[in-house]
Design a protein that fits this description.
The complex is a heterodimer of chains A (about 375) and B (about 230).
Chain A (H helix, E strand, L loop, with lengths): L2 E9 L2 E9 L3 E5 L6 H9 L6 E6 L2 E5 L4 E2 L2 H4 L1 E4 L11 H6 L13 H8 L14 H14 L4 E5 L7 H17 L4 E5 L2 H7 L2 E6 L2 E7 H5 L5 H4 L5 E11 L4 E6 L2 E6 L8 E7 L3 E4 L11 E11 L4 E8 L2 E8 H6 L7 E6 L1 E6 L11 E4 L1
Parallel strand pairs in A: 3-9, 3-10, 7-8, 8-9
Antiparallel strand pairs in A: 1-2, 1-4, 4-5, 5-6, 10-11, 12-13, 12-15, 13-14, 15-21, 16-20, 17-18, 17-20, 18-19, 21-22
Helix pairs in contact in A: 4-5, 5-6
Chain B lengths: L6 H34 L5 H13 L2 H12 L4 H10 L7 H25 L3 H9 L4 H30 L2 H7 L9 H10 L4 H33 L3
Classes of the chains: A alpha+beta (about 375), B mainly alpha (about 230).
Chain lengths: ~375, ~230
């Protein structure tokens, strides 16, 4: 199932003009506040009528201003998970979960028992929303949207209102949702960490325009996308497989860039993982460094150098089949005479791992491991 | 009939209850509709509708009663039509008293319900829409249950106001014992004759008792519903 969006909408002093297609999997709309991402998701949901545009899910046209088609929200059947869970206070959790079912067409769809099990909300069913924690409310809201048999799920910063602990509690459920259901997800976020962990496709928005679009791994390792992502948060995502647990407690992860050693990752052998390497946690060296505490040093080759307007620079390195971003100063880039084709070594200061979107295993909260 | 009441007094009490009950029950759907429209929609002429709804609150009741007589009297345009088509007569009947009470109580009812609707977060209604509920279903399954305390308050307020309505009623349907003489008209009538003080006082006490009972009932119902809706 593919969602095709093309929109133009004018605000005071700001025009939104975007076009993108969201394939199966989780498509993240990333951008800083005011970049227009919530406007896009609201237009898809039918809560906002754009000045011009067309929105379609496969052959079903939800909106076409030129042909004067605009389905009302209740006929679009898109499950919307809002930032504030918006549970119905007068209904129990169970009644909230089943609300959409009254209006959904008959036929196959997610079963209550499966959704309840997947989201871990079995113990809450008879309770009312008033007594739930923020994380619990959000899980119920996700279940409620899923049980309305949606064509796709829309999520507008579902974790933004939660503290770190609650975020960590929900992220694994979102990964399961992405991996275990066939419902495509359009996910709005301004957190690179969230996007790196969840997205299969990434749409980077800036000032009402689509700045970059593509498979999340490619966009995240594109040095040109760094200004839009934020230099402190930019980083590449690698695919890894757990291949060994050493006697001293270190875990061996195989990537096409080379072997990574991390403190204990509690997963079975063969587990597929996503490894996120923040650009600012990578040191670039011309020679293989000696006498250094870092365990993970990967041979690589400079692919591209991206100089910003300030004193910073971003280098894109190729290590095996993977692309890694490194953030350094313009002065260092010049001192090392970095240029495309130059062989270098990437020294990784820290590596974060999360469950991959290709694997089946379930991890706990995101582990930020210092190697 | 209790033996401490004369038949005229008893009839007045009975009639008042009958008139107030029908006045508030029949105006409830209109009251909810008017409150919903005023709270949730913006349209041309909204202020005009708001003004018309509230007019009975600020007009002298005698004026409202006279206008009712002009429109719904047997020779009034609406009154003549209703009599010919449905055999429905308002003038000098208890139905007219109910109409006058309903019109006078309407603004109070709409106000209470409108406040309740405005307190419901439209985002909840929006969420219900994205889950597949059309506007009427959203209203029935989300808005209405959430405003129930306000609806109850509005209903009881209207009932109490109808019990006490005097000016418009006496102007529109006069004060015919057993026909249109409600509690307040009866009290007034007893006060006009020498030696009627004791009868008037009995009816005054009954009025106070009914009003207090209505108030307590609405508080109790309101608290029950609010607890159910608070979501804890």
């Amino acid at each position: 199932m593919t969602l095709a969006v093309s929109l133009r909408h004018g605000f005071a002093g700001f025009t939104l003009d975007v076009e993108f297609a969201a394939p199966a999997g989780l498509t993240a709309l990333f951008g800083h506040s005011g970049s227009g991402k919530t406007t896009v998701i609201n237009a898809v949901a039918g809560l906002l009528a754009p000045d011009a545009g067309r929105i379609a899910v496969d052959d079903l046209v939800l909106l076409d201003r030129a042909r004067r088609i605009a389905l009302p929200p209740h006929r679009r059947r898109l499950g919307y998970v809002f930032q504030d869970a918006r549970l119905f206070p007068h209904l129990t959790v169970r009644q909230n979960l089943l609300y959409g079912r009254w209006f959904a067409p008959r036929g196959p769809g997610a079963a209550l028992a499966d959704v309840v099990e997947m989201l871990g909300i079995g113990a809450l069913l008879q309770r009312r929303p008033g007594g739930l924690s923020g994380g619990e409310k959000q899980r119920v809201a996700i279940g409620r949207a899923l049980l309305s048999k949606p064509r796709l799920l829309l999520m507008d910063e579902p974790l933004a209102a939660l503290d770190e602990e609650r975020k960590a509690e929900i992220l694994p459920y979102l990964e399961r949702l992405r991996d275990e259901t066939s419902v495509p997800i359009l996910y709005v976020s301004h957190s690179v960490a969230e996007v790196a962990r969840l997205a299969t496709t990434l749409v980077v928005m800036e000032a009402g325009r689509v700045q970059r679009i593509g498979p999340a791994r490619e966009v995240l390792s594109d040095p040109g996308a760094v200004p839009a992502l934020g230099p402190r948060e930019a980083g590449s995502v690698l695919r890894a497989r757990l291949v060994g647990q050493d006697a001293d407690g270190l875990t061996r992860l195989e990537t096409s860039a080379g072997m990574l050693l991390l403190p204990k990752v509690d997963l079975p052998l063969g587990a597929e993982l996503r490894v996120r390497i923040a650009a600012q946690d990578v040191i670039v060296a011309r020679q293989r460094p000696e006498g250094i505490s870092a365990l993970n040093i990967l041979p690589a080759e400079v692919v591209a150098l991206h100089l910003g307007s300030g004193p910073g620079a971003v280098v894109q390195l190729r290590a095996g089949g993977e692309l890694i971003l490194a953030r350094l100063t313009r002065r260092s880039a010049e001192a090392l005479a970095l240029a495309p084709g130059l062989p270098v070594f990437a020294v990784l200061k820290s590596v974060a791992v999360a469950q991959s979107d290709v694997g089946g295993a379930i991890t706990g909260p995101e582990l930020l491991l210092h190697s | 009939m209790p033996d401490w009441l004369t038949s005229d007094e008893w009839r007045a009490v009975n009639l008042s209850l009958l008139v107030s009950f029908w006045a508030s029950v029949l105006s409830l759907p209109c009251g909810i509709a008017a409150a919903y429209v005023l709270a949730r929609f913006d349209f041309w002429g909204k202020q005009l509708l708001n003004g018309i709804v509230h007019l009975p609150l600020i007009l002298p009741p005698v004026v409202t009663g006279y206008l009712l007589l002009l429109t719904f009297g047997r020779r009034g345009p609406v009154g003549a039509f209703l009599e010919q088509s449905f055999g429905l007569v308002f003038a000098f009947r208890w139905t007219g008293a109910a109409l006058a009470a309903a019109v006078m109580a309407f603004p109070l009812m709409v106000r209470a319900i409108r406040l309740a609707i405005e307190a419901v977060d439209p985002k909840l209604e929006q969420a219900a829409g994205t889950l597949g509920a059309s506007r009427p279903w959203v209203f029935l399954t989300v808005t209405l249950p959430l405003i129930l305390p306000g609806v109850i308050a509005g209903f009881i307020l209207a009932f109490a106001k109808a019990m006490g309505e005097f000016g418009a009623t006496i102007t529109f349907v006069a004060s015919i014992p057993g026909q249109t003489q409600t509690l307040p008209s009866a009290i007034y009538a007893f006060l006009q004759v020498p030696g009627g003080d004791a009868q008037a006082m009995r009816l005054v006490l009954i009025s106070i008792a009914i009003a207090m009972l209505a108030l307590l009932l609405s508080e109790w119902l309101g608290r029950r519903v609010a607890r159910r809706i608070a979501g804890t």
